[in-house]
Specification:
The chain is α/β, with parallel strands linked by helices and 450 residues long. Helix content is 53%, strand content 12%. The chain is built from 14 helices and eight strands. The chain has an eight-stranded mixed beta sheet with strand order 3-2-1-4-7-6-8-5, with helices on both faces. α5 links the parallel β2 and β3. The radius of gyration is 22 Å and the shape is globular. It comes from Neobacillus driksii. Keywords: Glycosyltransferase, Membrane, Transferase, Transmembrane, Transmembrane helix. Belongs to the glycosyltransferase 2 family. This is Glycosyltransferase family 2 protein. InterPro entries: Nucleotide-diphossugar_trans.
C-alpha cells in the first residue's frame, strides 16, 4: 500500500550549528574513531585468531577474520561517526521554478506507467515539467497507456520510440530531445512524493557549481507483499539510505541511480550520455566524478519504487548491481579519481568482492558449524560487530523519522518481522548473490535489462 503523498509546506531552516566541522575534519575524525575500534577488535579477537590459525594456518586465519570482523567493523565504525557528524546545509530556495524534463524508459510497463505519470501530474513543483516516455520495444499496451495519459493529464507528455533494446539506448535517444538545463530520470514503476521534484531541484540549485547530479531517496512501495519485500523495505530505508548519506557527506555519491536522480543536461552530454553497460547509471556516475564534478544526495526527495517480490527477480537485480560495480571499477580506477574522498569511496568497492566471498564461503558454513557447537569460525567474538550495526541503524532510523518522514508528513510502517529477518538473514542472501554477479561479469554472461 502506498502512503498518501501530501505536499509539504515550504519553510527555510534557520537553525545554525555553532560547532561547524568541515568535511575534511569529519573525514579524519571518523577514520580515527574507526581505527580505534579496529585496534580494540583486534585485541579482543586475538584468542579467536590464534585458535583458527592453529587449524588453517595464520595467513588464512587472518584473511578469514579480516573479512568477517576487522574490515566490516572498521567500515561500520566509520559509517556511524560520519552519520553522527553529518549536517546537511538547508536549501537556499525551496521553491525553484526552473523548467525540467523527466525521462522515463519503458519496456512492457502497461500496468504501471499510467500511475507513475499521474503522480508526476500531482507535483507541487512551480516550474514547467516536460515528460518524455521512451517506448523501448514494448509488446504490451504501454504505448496506449501513455496516449491515454496524454489526454487525461495536464502535464506535457511526449512519446518517442527506440527500437534498439536496452535502457542506455532508450535514455541516449531521449537525451537528444532535452532542451532544459536539468533533467530527471525516473523508472516507469516509481511513484514520486508530491514535493519530491521540488526538493530535488532545490538541492541542486543550492549546491556549488561543480555539483552535476543529485540522487533522490528511493524507498520500497510494495513492502507488504511477502517476507522478501518486507526485508527490502528496511534495506532501502536503512541500508541503502545510510550509504547514500555517507557518500553524499563526502561529496561523492557513487550512484546517481537511474530510478530517480537529477542531472545537469550539459554535463551528461559532455561525457557522451549513458554507456553500454549493465550498470549504466553506476558507470555514468563514476565518469562524472572523474571529471572533478560532485554528486549529492537529497534524502527528502522521496520516491517509492517496486522492489522484487520473488527470489528470482531479486537475484537478477542484485547480481546486476554487482556487475555494475565491477564495470565502474574497470571504467574509472579508484586511484585515478581526482578527489580524495571519491578515491576512498570507490576504493572501498575494490574490497567488496573479497568481503562478499569471505562471507559466502566462511560465515555461512561457520554459522552451520556453530549451530552444532563448533565455534571455530563463527563464535562470540564475531558478535563484536553487531553493536555498531545496531547503533548505525538506530541513528539513521531516528534521522529518517524526524528529519525526512516527519517533514514530508509520512509515517514509518511498523515492520518488526521484516527488520528481524533483515538484520539476521539479509546479508546471507546478498553476499552469495553478489558473488554470483561478479562471476557473471568475469565470464561475460548475457546482459538483461530486467
Amino acid at each position: 500500500m502506498i502512503p498518501k503523498l501530501k505536499s509539504v509546506d515550504s519553510q527555510e531552516e534557520t537553525t545554525h550549528n555553532p560547532l561547524y566541522v568541515p568535511v575534511a575534519g569529519k573525514f579524519w575524525i571518523s577514520h580515527c574513531f574507526a581505527l580505534l575500534w579496529l585496534c580494540i577488535s583486534i585485541y579482543i579477537a586475538h584468542p579467536w585468531l590464534e585458535d583458527l590459525a592453529y587449524h588453517v594456518s595464520y595467513p588464512l586465519a587472518l584473511l578469514i577474520i579480516g573479512g568477517l570482523a576487522y574490515i566490516p567493523g572498521y567500515m561500520n565504525a566509520f559509517l556511524v561517526i560520519s552519520l553522527i557528524l553529518d549536517r546537511q546545509p538547508p536549501s537556499k530556495n525551496e521553491n525553484p521554478q526552473d523548467d525540467i524534463t523527466i525521462l522515463i524508459a519503458a519496456h512492457n510497463e502497461e500496468d504501471k506507467i499510467l500511475q507513475t505519470l499521474q503522480y508526476i501530474d500531482r507535483q507541487d513543483y512551480l516550474g514547467k515539467v516536460m515528460v518524455i516516455v521512451i517506448d523501448n520495444c514494448s509488446t504490451d499496451e504501454t504505448v496506449n497507456e501513455v496516449r491515454k495519459a496524454k489526454k487525461k493529464l495536464s502535464i506535457d507528455i511526449r512519446l518517442v520510440h527506440e527500437k534498439k533494446p536496452g535502457k542506455f539506448h532508450a535514455l541516449n535517444y531521449a537525451l537528444k530531445f532535452v532542451s532544459t538545463p536539468y533533467f530527471i530520470t525516473l523508472d516507469a514503476d516509481t511513484l514520486l512524493h508530491r514535493s519530491s521534484i521540488r526538493y530535488l531541484v532545490s538541492r541542486m540549485k543550492s549546491s556549488p557549481e561543480e555539483v552535476c547530479a543529485v540522487a533522490g531517496s528511493v524507498l520500497a512501495k510494495n513492502s507488504r507483499e511477502n517476507l522478501l519485500t518486507k526485508m527490502q523495505e528496511w534495506d532501502y530505508f536503512l541500508g541503502i539510505a545510510s550509504i547514500k548519506r555517507l557518500q553524499g557527506l563526502y561529496q561523492g555519491t557513487l550512484v546517481a541511480q537511474g530510478a530517480y536522480s537529477l542531472y545537469k543536461t550539459q554535463c551528461i552530454k559532455e561525457v557522451g550520455g549513458w554507456p553500454d553497460a549493465i550498470g549504466e547509471d553506476i558507470v555514468l556516475t563514476w565518469r562524472l566524478l572523474g571529471r572533478k564534478w560532485k554528486v549529492y544526495f537529497e534524502p527528502c526527495a522521496v520516491a517509492f519504487t517496486e522492489v522484487p517480490s520473488s527470489f528470482k527477480h531479486l537475484v537478477r537485480q542484485r547480481a546486476r548491481w554487482a556487475r555494475g560495480m565491477i564495470e565502474g571499477l574497470h571504467e574509472v580506477k579508484p586511484w585515478k579519481q581526482p578527489q580524495i574522498y571519491v578515491k576512498y569511496l570507490t576504493g572501498i568497492n575494490l574490497i567488496m568482492p573479497y568481503l562478499d566471498l569471505t562471507f559466502t564461503l566462511c560465515w555461512i558454513p561457520g554459522l552451520i558449524l556453530a549451530f552444532f557447537g563448533n565455534f571455530l569460525i563463527v563464535g562470540p567474538a564475531t558478535l563484536f560487530v553487531v553493536p555498531l550495526k545496531l547503533i548505525s541503524y538506530s541513528f539513521l532510523y531516528f534521522y529518517q523519522r524526524n528529519y525526512v518522514f516527519k517533514r514530508l508528513k509520512l509515517r514509518i510502517r511498523k515492520n518488526i518481522i521484516g527488520f528481524i529477518f533483515y538484520f539476521l538473514c539479509y546479508q546471507m542472501i546478498m553476499s552469495p548473490v553478489s558473488v554470483y554477479g561478479y562471476l557473471q561479469e568475469i565470464l561475460k554472461f548475457k546482459r538483461k535489462w530486467k
